[in-house]
Amino acid sequence: MDPSGTDPAVGTPADYGDTLYRVYFEVGEWQGIARDAITAFLLERHQAHASFSIAPAELRPRPHG
Description:
Shape: extended
Largest sheet: none
C-alpha cells in the first residue's frame, strides 16, 4: 500500500483480492459458437466453485460489439 492509503494493485492483474469486476469480451460470432463456449466454461467454473456465480441471461450479444 502506498502512503496515500490506496493500493496501486487494485483492479490490476496483481490484485488477488475477492472483489469481482464486470468484464467485457468482444469475440467473433458465428451460429452462437462463441456464446455457447463461454457459457459452458462459466457454468463449469460455477459447478467447481460454489462461490462463483454466473447468470447466463446476462451474456448478451450486441450488434457491432
